[in-house]
Amino acid sequence: MDWGMKNRLSRIFNQSNGKAVMLAIDHGYFQGPTTGLRNPRETISPLLHYCDSLFVTRGILRNCINPNTNTPIFLRVSGGPSVLGELSNEDITTSMKEALRLNAVGVGISIFVGEKNEDRTISNLGRLVNEAEDFGMPVLAITAVGKEMERDARYLGLACRIAAEIGAHIVKTYYCAEDFEKVVEGCPVPIVIAGGKKIPELDALHMSYNAISKGAAGVDMGRNIFQSENPVAMIQAIRAVVHENYTANEAFELFNRLKNMKDDTHAIEKITH
Ligand code: 5RP
Prior knowledge:
By secondary structure, the protein is α/β, with parallel strands linked by helices. It is built from 13 helices and 10 strands. It has one domain: Aldolase class I (TIM Barrel), CATH 3.20.20.70. The relative contact order is 0.13. The site of ribulose-5-phosphate has 14 residues, from β10 and α10.
């Protein structure tokens, strides 16, 4: 592996434990100004300090993020259809040159296994990896599975394995309660989980804890952080699970403590250093 690729991966995954807290704020690329993301700058700025990397589109990056940030940027480079259309009809929307210009640490693309355009989205991934390898750019494959398919270990495992076989360096998938460890086992590259729809904070912490216990390398989470009643407390609770071996209940206590603090600076320092 070349130096550039190694260096970027080392900025995505914490060097002491190999884990990552990625903050996903890319939903607008097909959903528009969805709940919690009407003003992305306001949503992102208090959270930026707490994520290991931020997953966004180039438009939000250029318009809403201060270029003096030290937070590594992971760029979503696929898109096309809106929520009103056929979601699997995606293509590569942002070039490798642009990702390099924006100093990205990685690029992310969706594949739609079991959907109408499954084959094209998988070959999009292959093309992206071919180009990314030339520039030492890690590729995250975001695995969406067909609407009719259960989000179970069989289908998630299928999608993750395909993504890794095509060359993704990191795979994002959903957590499944049963046999998630088999999904991880079957995928030779690190897996991070998406959070999915907003659920109660304690449930999201349990999901994250279980995913990490069963071998996930971290989270690339959006709604369960930015739609939380207290996003800043929630991202720190998620960090505590991913990086500090907190159980879900311990992290929930931390969430409640931070939520109830007027000035949470001291607790923040404790959990991030
Ligand atoms: C949308 C995405 C999101 O980044 C992903 O779903 C993570 O966000 P959430 O935790 O809200 O599910 O890839 O296609």
